[in-house]
Design goal:
Helicase, Ruva Protein, domain 3, about 55% helix, 3 domains, alpha/beta, globular, single chain, Methane Monooxygenase Hydroxylase, Chain G, domain 1, 6-stranded mixed β-sheet, Rossmann fold
Length: about 375
Amino acid sequence: MSSTSLTYLEALARNYAVRAVMSDKEGNYADAISYYKRAIEVLEKILQLYPDHSLNSMYKQWIGEYRRRITELDGLLGRVRVPANKVSDSSEDVDSFFEILEKPGISFSDVADMESAKEAIRESIIFPSRRPDVFPLGWPKGILLFGPPGCGKTYIAAAIAGEVDGYFINIDAADIMSKWLGEAEKRVSKLFTKARELAKAGKPVIIFIDEVDSLFGTFETEIGGEVRVRNQFLKEMDGLDSKINPKQLVFVVAATNKPWRLDEAFIRRFQKRIYVPLPPKEARIAILKMYSRSLKLDLSVDLEKLSDMLDGYTSSDIVEIVAAAHMRTVRELFESVGGKGEPRPIKMEDFVEVIKHRKPSINREMIKVFEMWHEKYKAL
C-alpha cells in the first residue's frame, strides 16, 4: 500500500475523531457516537492494511478509548429525553447539511478579471439559463473549477448564481458524509431531489461542492460508504444530462485544489474544466483597486508598480497584504494618539514593508503541476 493511502486514512480518522469530540462536548451524543464509530472503522482498517506502522500502538489505544466513550454515551442517551421537534434517526431534514441562498449578493462585476473563466461560464450556464430554446443540443451541466487555493474559485461560483438570478446551494464535501452510517448516499439523492424541486419554478439552481477531491478522489483503499456515495453522485450527474431533461436548469459546479486526485469517471461528467490560475498583472491591479477603494491611499502608492511586486501571489494573498498595510496605519493611530482621529493615508512604504514579511502562499513548482494537469484535461 502506498504512503498516499495511509496519509488519506489517517486524515480521515482524525477528521471523524475531531467531529466526535466536538459533538461530545456540545452534548450531541448521538452524533458523537456515530463519529466515534467511523473513526474506529478507519483506524481498524489502518491496523489491517499497515500492521508494521509505527503508530499502531497509539491507534489501538485510541480505539479502546473511543469504545469506552461510546459505551458511556449509550448510557447517557438512555437517560436523555429527545425534544419532540428533534428527530434522532436518519430521517433528518434535507436542508440540515447544506445552505441554500437565493441570488447571492455578488455578481461577475465583483470578481476581478478572470475573463476566460467568466466567458466559459457564460456559455455553459448563463446563456442556457436565459435562452434554453436556442440550445437544441443541450448544454454542460457540470463545471469543474481547479487551481491554486486562494485564487477565487468559491467566489466566482457564488457569482454565477447572482448572474442568473438563481439558487446557490453550498456544500462542503465533508458535509455530505453522513453522521449516520450508510446514509451518505441518501444525502446525495436528497440534495439533487431538492435542487430539481427548486428548478421547477424556472430558476436555475447551482450546486456548489468545495474541496470535491476529498470525496471523489481516487484512493487505493476505500472506507465505509465512499464508493457508494461516489456512485450515487455519478448517477445523479447522469440524470442531469440536458438530453434526458432538456428543460432542467440544475448545474453542478465543483472546486478543487488537487484536480490530479479526481476519479476519471468523475472528470468526464464535468464537460467544462476551467483553470483558475494565479492572477495576472491586470487582475492584480483590479484586486488592489477593488479592496483599497474604501481606504485612503497616499499619492506615493503606485498600483502598477505594486502589482509587479505581487507577481506570484494569490488573490487572497493580495487582499491580506492590503489589509496588513492598512493595519500599519491603524496601529500607528492607536500608538500615537490613543486611537483618536482618523488613520493616515496608506503609503507605498507600508506595502513594501508588509511584502518583505509576507511570501506567496504557493510556490512556482506547484503552479507547474496545475499547468500540466490543465494541458491534459482542459475543456473550455
